Amino acid sequence: MSSTPAEHRPRVVLGVGGGIAAYKACEVLRRLTESGHAVRVVPTEAALRFVGAATFEALSGQPVATGVFTDVPEVPHVRIGQTADLVVVAPATADLMAKAAAGMADDLLTGTLLTARCPVLMVPAMHTEMWEHPATQANVATLRSRGVIVAEPAAGRLTGKDTGKGRLPEPSEIVALATLLLERPDALPRDLTGLRVVISAGGTREPLDPVRYLTNRSSGKQGYALARVAAQRGAQVTLVSTVTGGPLSDPAGVEVVPASTAEQLRAAVLTAAEQADVVVMAAAVADFRPAEFVDHKIKKTEGSEPQPLELRRNPDILVELVKGRRPGQLVVGFAAETGDPGGDVLDHARAKLARKGCDLLVVNAVGDGKAFEVEHNQGWLLTADGAEAPIPQGSKARFASTVWDAILRLSSSDRL
Questions:
Q1: H helix or E strand, kind and range, residue 146
Q2: Is 225 helix (H, G, I), strand (E, B) or coil?
Q3: Which of 129, 156, 183 delimits the end of a domain?
Q4: How do the residues of the chain divide into helix, strand and coil, expressed in percent and rounded to 5?
Q5: Catalytic residue numbers?
Q6: Does residue 190 belong to any structural domain of this protein?
Q7: The pTM is what?
Q8: Which tens digit of pLDDT belongs to each residue from 36-49?
Q9: Terminus-to-terminus CA distance in the chain, angstroms?
Q10: Residue 336 and residue 284 in contact, taking contact as beta carbons nearer than 8 Å
Q11: Which of the four, 25, 144, 324, 360, has the lowest number of CB atoms within 10 Å?
């Protein structure tokens, strides 16, 4: 549990609608409190039929009520919203969003939504038919027009045997979006609507034998953050990932294409890029691969040293993308650099930008807890016209939002 003083802890209201996904709100609550936030849970009456008030009170350390006549002298339906730094509603049911769009205030949560002047993040969860119904879509449009961030729902297993779009995103994703809005309240405008985006993520794996492979320290977290932020800002996103099936959940609203080796990543990215407006090569592609794959485990022989490992150069996917891009397409590269006797991080990045010819190069200094395998990031943005701008340290979601801002600035010259 965080030891952050209470007066300095961000105040988050967690609204919980009455849907089966309400159980996931417990994990959202746990993650928020353990990362130092002061969380007040405001459920609907229906939500308490799925998760009891005692659970929310135990996890938050604060009382739970649903009606406006509890603790009347404190006027909670006004005070809770007025004092919040962020309101997150998860799950946001079709009924709850309809009430919010209509400006109704018949319980503590809807009253709180009317009085909140902080960012409001609503995370829908419902059956596909309910999400796609014109009434729900009209309510979503109304809420977004008023500045409410209505997240894209995930696709997957719903209740019973049903599957489709409408699943509540995983708690880790909801918390990432909440954290981003606390860092930067204006981080999720719907300004990428209509853009077709391809992003690669993770480190490639180059097999040596059935057991071993060559890889690098990339976790894929930054690429996933780029995809998550782009989808929530309205883009149509394809994510080519080398880390599917691992600890990272698929970002909501994103098509995920699995790949493993550099050759597989190359084929998937080049195919997806044919119809893309923006291609972001955030994956850490191995520069080399074993010259030969051995179809059995290479054994250790006592008393002798292993045979030297012969390597072959992998294709340069970024250069291929730049050479083959269609008119108006933006190509963004990533550079993970360290300083050495030949120059510092930016010296090597500038040389790389000149070699690759991409429109924008995102630069990270790596090593000693930097960039790889951590939750935060910082770096620089280098553009083909010679402009350079630092990105201060923050969450990888905030880093992603800054990158998309830069891409939009580049696209303002009617290139897209």
A1: none
A2: helix
A3: 183
A4: 35, 25, 40
A5: 216
A6: no
A7: 0.92
A8: 999 999 999 999 99
A9: 46
A10: yes
A11: 324
Q: What does the alpha-carbon distance between residue 389 and residue 407 come to, in Å, rounded to a whole number?
A: 13
Same domain, 154 and 206: no
Considering the domain architecture, whether residues 150 and 228 belong to the same structural domain is answered as no
CB-based contacts of 181-187 (< 8 A; 24+ apart in sequence)? 181/86, 181/119, 181/121, 181/149, 182/10, 182/12, 182/37, 182/85, 182/86, 183/394, 183/395, 183/397, 183/398, 184/394, 184/398, 184/401, 185/118, 185/119, 187/229, 187/397, 187/398, 187/401
In order, the DSSP letters of 252-299 are TTEEEEE--SHHHHHHHHHHHHTT-SEEEE-SB--SEEESS--SSPPP
Is 120 found in the same domain as 54? yes
Same-domain pairing of 107 and 200: no
For 219-228, what is each residue's pLDDT tens digit? 999 999 999 9
On whether both 142 and 92 belong to a single domain, the answer is yes
pLDDT digits (tens, 9 = 90+) for 77-133: 678 989 999 999 999 999 999 999 999 999 999 999 999 999 999 999 999 999 999
- By the 10 Å C-beta count (0-12 exposed, 13-18 middle, 19+ buried), 312 is classed as exposed
Give dist(CA 178, CA 233) in Å, integer.
Answer: 14
- Examine residue 1 and state whether it is found in any structural domain, yes or no: no
Identify the CATH number of the domain in which residue 150 sits.
Answer: 3.40.50.1950
Domain extent for 292: 196-411
Which residues contribute to the annotated binding site for CTP? 287, 297, 315-318, 334, 352, 356
133 and 23 housed in the same domain: yes
Domains identified in the chain, total number: 2
Within this chain, do residues 301 and 338 fall inside the same structural domain, yes or no? Answer: yes
Same domain, yes or no, for 227 and 168? Answer: no
238, 257 contact by CB (below 8 A): yes
Residue 173 has φ and ψ, to the nearest 5°, of: -70, -40
